Every structure is written in structure tokens, then in C-alpha cells.
Amino acid sequence: MPPREAPARAGAMRLQVRGLTVRFGGLAALTDVDLDVADGQVVGLIGPNGAGKTTVFNAVSGLVRTAAGTITVAGRPAPRAPSGLARAGVARTLQGLGLFPGLSVRENVEVGALAAPDPGAPDPAARTLRALDDLGIADRAALPVGALPYPEQKKVALARALVADPRLLLLDEPAGGLGAADIAELDAVVRRVAATGCAVLLVEHHVDFVMGLCDRVVVLDFGRVIADGLPDDVRRDPAVTAAYLGIEVTAP
Ligand SMILES: Nc1ncnc2c1ncn2[C@@H]1O[C@H](COP(=O)(O)OP(=O)(O)OP(=O)(O)O)[C@@H](O)[C@H]1O
Question: Residue limits of the ABC transporter domain (predicted)?
């Protein structure tokens, strides 16, 4: 895949994080984190285990109390309640999928459609079918989601986020557990979503996927931003290589 070109129009700032600090008791999970994602941009958030990546997502989603800093979505303070976030156009996927195994594929995705009612949009059932179709799993709609192979369950989780037509999409390890063909498909889906103007922030351990897809990459280590820039510059940053201690972050 070629690197993504910059969006044709410089997108407005969708997510802006400034000075974000989160503590769990005596542990500083995040310290003074700054992060920007513009409309149409794909930003990767990487870092070793425990660096604070998921905590950033949880702070943006109102799931953890922040000790300091500001989080704005489209220039306004990020809503803290799920309904407010949905109205602000924020959707996320979870590391653990978070699907309801007893419900059908269609019902799982409809949960996302109902969470973000938009009077101008088609009804939830139609939106659900469109989202499943976009990801090539419309023929799975009636099956219990637990009966699907893992890569298809990941597509269902993604469809549940996309069905709300988000303006800010938070993807938590979307490539985790996927093989090369599924990752290539995922890469194409994320590019397509960003091309509609949606801002995408993705947490991922699969460094090659991140470097190939993202417009910018932010690296966290021990809760602090140690690099923020173009993928090629981040790859070459000695602080990043040191943080990964032996994990290959350079181009093959
Ligand atoms: N609810 C919590 N209570 C206490 N400590 C927490 C909590 N959530 C996260 N932490 C701690 O905060 C730090 C950052 O965790 P976080 O899950 O954000 O890291 P991460 O970069 O997403 O890691 P991974 O790549 O392993 O998912 C870790 O030290 C973790 O143990």
C-alpha cells in the first residue's frame, strides 16, 4: 500500500488533547500528553505495553477521571457520557471486541445504529445492512456473532462503530489477531473511512501496519509523548527505538 496522501483539504481539528494527565492512585498513567487529530487524518498511537495508549482512549471516551488537561472534540469540551459522545460523532472499538455473543451479527451492529440516532439518516435497520455490506459481511447478518471466526467478529465490532457515521473514530488494536490478508483489507477500510473526512485515531502494536497507514504517529512511553511526527521520522527517532528495546521499528 502506498503511504496515505495528505487529505485534499486541510481538515479542521477534530480531536485536540492538551496537557492530559491521568493517575491511578500513585501511578502516573499519562503525564502532560498533547495529541491532535484533524478531519480526514489517520493518527497512530503506539508504544510498549503499559505506555498509556488505552488510557488515552478511555480519557477521550469519558471512562477515566483526568487529573489535568483538556480534551476537545470539534472545539468543544469532549462530552463525558456515552450519549453525548455519540451525538458529538465519537465512536470507538474495544480491544476485547465487546460483542454480545448470544445476539446476531445484525443485532450487534444495530446497537451502534441506535446509539447515534440521526433524524436525517436512514432507519437503523437500513444503516446496519449498509455497514455490514460495506465490510463484506452482509450475508452473516442472521448468524449468532459468537459463531463467526475471529476476523469476522472484528469486522462486526468495526461495523458497530462505523454504523453511526462517526466524525471521530477510535480504533483499539484493530489489527490484533489478524493475518496479512485481513490486515490489508482493514487498511483499505480505514483509508476509505478517512477519505470521507472522518478523523481516525488508532492504537496498535502492529508497527508496520501503523507506519504504512498513518499520516502521523504519536509514541507514548511511560505515559509521556516521546515522539510525534511523520511515520518515517518516527521510525528513525532514537528515543523510539530505545523505548521498544529490540522490537523492530525500522523499515525492512
Ligand atoms: N483502571 C486502572 N487502574 C489502575 N491502573 C491502571 C488502570 N488502567 C490502566 N492502568 C495502568 O496504567 C498504565 C497504562 O495502561 P494502559 O492500559 O493505558 O497501557 P497500554 O499502552 O494501552 O498497554 P497495552 O499495550 O498493554 O494495552 C499501566 O501501568 C496500567 O497497569
Answer: 15-247
